[in-house]
Write a structure and sequence with these properties.
Strand order of the largest sheet: 1-2-6-5
Oligomer: single chain
CATH class of the domain at 66-145: Mainly Beta
Largest sheet: 4 strands, antiparallel
Strand content: 25-35%
Number of helices: 3
Order of helices and strands: HHHEEEEEEEE
Radius of gyration: 26 Å
Helix content: 25-40%
Number of strands: 8
């Protein structure tokens, strides 16, 4: 014996199909909102006007020839190897890429050609923003640590 295909059957099929689509869209939208860390730049027009200044700063930094290579030691302290002269001071800020944790400034002590942070890096993925400064000269670097 065969059953007839009725309007209720079609309603159930459409409800299941569109219900699945709506549920997936809801889950994906909620996930996107929860994990978005914010804007890349607050005002792209103003950032575009500053572009030539950024290029000049990059050329000046490249002319200094300073380098900064960050890594982690066994205690998860940040170690920055550099070729900068002895009078250069170092500072860094750690930034969570998704904005889940507030930015934190790291204090460094210089040991020869290396800067070593006083506090260990929290677990997770971090963007490290380094600034080396010697009077009017400065160089900025950015790297990722895990």
């Amino acid at each position: 014996m065969t059953r007839n295909f009725t309007g209720w059957h079609m309603f159930a099929i459409l409800f299941a199909m569109f219900g699945t689509i709506v549920a997936v869209n809801f889950v994906m939208a909620r996930s996107a909102i929860r994990t978005f860390g914010g804007t890349v730049v607050d005002n792209s027009y103003v950032a575009g006007q500053q572009y030539n200044r950024y290029l000049a700063q990059a050329r000046a930094q490249r002319a200094l020839g300073w380098t900064a290579s960050p890594s982690l030691d066994a205690q998860r302290r940040v170690v920055i190897a550099t070729n900068a002269p002895a009078g250069v001071t170092g500072a860094a800020t750690i930034h969570h890429p998704l904005g889940r944790a507030p930015d934190q400034a790291l204090a460094f002590t210089r040991h020869g050609a290396r800067f070593i942070s006083a506090t260990p890096l929290p677990a997770g993925r971090w963007q490290l923003r380094i600034e080396l400064r010697d009077g009017a000269h400065s160089a900025r670097f950015e790297d990722e640590l895990r």
